[in-house]
Specification:
mainly alpha, UCP028200, Lipoprotein
Amino acid sequence: MKSLRNYVVLLLSFVILGCTTKFLYRNIDWFVMTYIDEYVSLNDEQERLVEFSIKQLASWHKEYELPKYIAYIDELSAKPLEDIDAKWVKQQSDRMRSFSRGIGKQAGPSLYALLMQLSDKQVTELLDNVAEKHREYEEKYTTSEESEIREIYQERMEDAFERWVGDMTDKQKAQIVDWSQSVEITAQDRIAQNQKMFVEFETLFAKREDSSYFQATYDRLLNDPESFYTSSLNQKMERNRPLTFQFIADLSQGLTDKQYQHLLAELQEWREIAVDLSQVDN
């Protein structure tokens, strides 16, 4: 369930993907509370639990995770472009996921405690809001033609590429178009997956009194969500991943000198952010 996992990886998103100031890091508890409020209204005691848990998580993250990010950025910066291949790209994808899993493992007990404290009314509110998010996704993609979805894929990749390396060449734009036309479309599979996961989520709360079931299913939802994939989605992802890894490797090897310098500057900026954040007082 995305809402469950997003809660515990939100901190990573701020630091690695979007957080550029000490203010955000110092006030991460407020941002997390704002996110949670989109799904469920907490009482005062529950809010205090979340705030305390986030402060503990931020302290742990600063001490143990930020140094890993800094070392990782240094490693990326030193990687020769000509040595980048699909295998290496997959390894980096796995490492980024390991960062996310590390935060999930650290935050898991606190989130478990929060979920166990939710009243029946709060559970209903949470499920209603999750269902609404799913409906929004379904409405967006069930009315879209295949060509429109592939254009979305193309635009997302172009935005990501330009974010890291600047303006693209015509050849690179053509490569992105080719990639967007080659991958399997997963929108309908995601809709089916959302429906399946919603049932799992409903069952999880319905069996809260069964501690062994709740703990086992909770751990699986949090730490191994892909184990809930439908067979169709899993097959398409198994095909799409190698295509995407090879595509990224090809793009990386074809960077111009200007693009490469842009990439190094971006990495250095993120390194400085991580160093700066490591000096934030909790």
